[in-house]
Amino acid sequence: MTTADGVLDLVERWATAEQQNDAGLLGGLLADDFVGVGPFGFVLTREQWLARFGNGLVNRSFAIEDPQVRDYGTAAVVVAALAQEMSWQGDDNSGRYRITLVTARSPERWLLASVHIGPLQIPPGRPASASA
How far apart are CA 89 and CA 77, in angstroms? Predict the structure, then answer.
């Protein structure tokens, strides 16, 4: 299995855990010192990221699109688009986002070390098709 294959498998399992709102499954994929940055700039520890489902986050759909893997040996970076249908404490926050994932190879497997989710906006003066 190549680095890209292993990392993409991790990304797929992560997206499945997110879509299923499964903190238990998700916990097995995150590094102990994981840090997550949300689309509005908030920063969450591993424990806070896992607690989102119990605090009002509900994912209805969570799809990673066009993932591009950059291999750095014991680390890899994935840049992709995220199409997410979700609500936070009852308010719809669905949208498309740009996402950067940092993965790290442990002796046994790949783990997710960091997630950064940012807005995917159309640049001023550009047609809508230029956003993805």
Answer: 31
CA 101 centroid distance within chain? 6
Dump pLDDT digits (tens) for 67-103. 999 999 999 999 999 999 999 899 898 999 999 999 9
- Residues near 40 by Cβ (< 8 Å), separated by ≥ 6? none
Domains and CATH numbers, the chain: 3-120 (3.10.450.50)
Task: Please give the full DSSP string across 52-114, using - where no structure is assigned.
Answer: GGGGTEEEEEEEEEEEEEEE-SSEEEEEEEEEEEEEETTEE--EEEEEEEEEEE-SSSEEEEE
Side chain identity at residue 4, one-letter code? A
| pLDDT at res. 104 | 97
